[in-house]
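Note to self: keep these together.
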Amino acid sequence: MKRTATFLVILASLLAALLAIGAVASQTKIVQLIGDETAEIQCDGKSLDIRKISGTQVVAWCVPATGSTPTQEPIDTPMPTDMLVPLIGDETAEIQCDGESLAIRRISGIQAVAWCVPAVMPTPTQVPTATPVSTPISTPAPPLGLPAPYGVDYPSESDFPYLTTLNVKLVKMSTGSPQAALALLDTVNGYGMRAILRISGAGDWGWNGSQFNLSSLANYEQVIGGHPALFAVYGLHEPWERFSAAQLRTFYSQWKAVAPSLPVWHDIGSLPSDFTDGICDVCAISSYPHRWEGDNPVNDYDRRVRRKIQRAQARIQADPDATLCVALQAYGASAGSGKPWRMPTADEMREHASIVFGELGVTCGTWYAYYHQYDYVLGDPQLDEQRQVVAETYDLYFVE
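Structure:
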């Protein structure tokens, strides 16, 4: 994060040159970074260190000259799938682009992908950091070559075959020992999905008022670190109720000291004004607009969806390496139960998804929950119409 300003200047110069000299586009090479990563790209014998600075992805070009500063950054580019290089763990890979080598190294975070592109000029589009909070962020494609960060919370393993028919690519699952976590990840990987792993019994990780006890993570780091199906490991549940921003930074720094390759996921609820970097790799907020007012069903899309997510999108820019994920409501209680939440209809789920993924451009989301202790959940047999919305949403917002 310390190198962000320098990189922005370098990237602006590179992009400017690309726009100014379309005749040499055949030499273009692109790096896409997902998570907290640094890469190195070779440009005519000179190395350029590249770091993801915001949003879901960052791209950089090798160009032979400089030009005027562009107003937008082109990021949408066709990708030949046979040239994908996924990096897992602390690795270095190399691909050949028209006889020239492109080297990229994954340092930490989730994953990195590198590829060569054909001699075409990318289509300009908006980048999330350049978009005001009041303006919807355009929805980019999911991370190329990887399962999209879209799915459901807390299914069972026996549901995996069916979930693939719903286009589920991400599951949140509870697990036990490092060996049990490894077996679960292997199963998840076999279905072409990734997982957020919640370690049973972790709770507040031994918080004693000043420090956490994260020593047990060392075994998980050794056993599952770098697994291709690992999206993140669950940190804390709604931590703002119990911890300050400074205490959450302590948690994060202790975690990374023990398990640097395990991304931290917090079910953080919302992002307060004192949110900073060094708190979470994936920050998951809730979006639960479907409520009862007495016996009357209401949808509070403005306050509980639009305004909440827009605030989070603005505040998460304090940590350019963090990913914002949204949990969409798929649970509820019966009318007259005294509980405020209600199960949405299929049409209400469609409208909710259109706001989150379409209008606001969120690129990571799960439906909460497939199974849980509520009167109604997504996994209920009678709610097939709602489950079909899960599949439709993927087709609408996560496929190019």
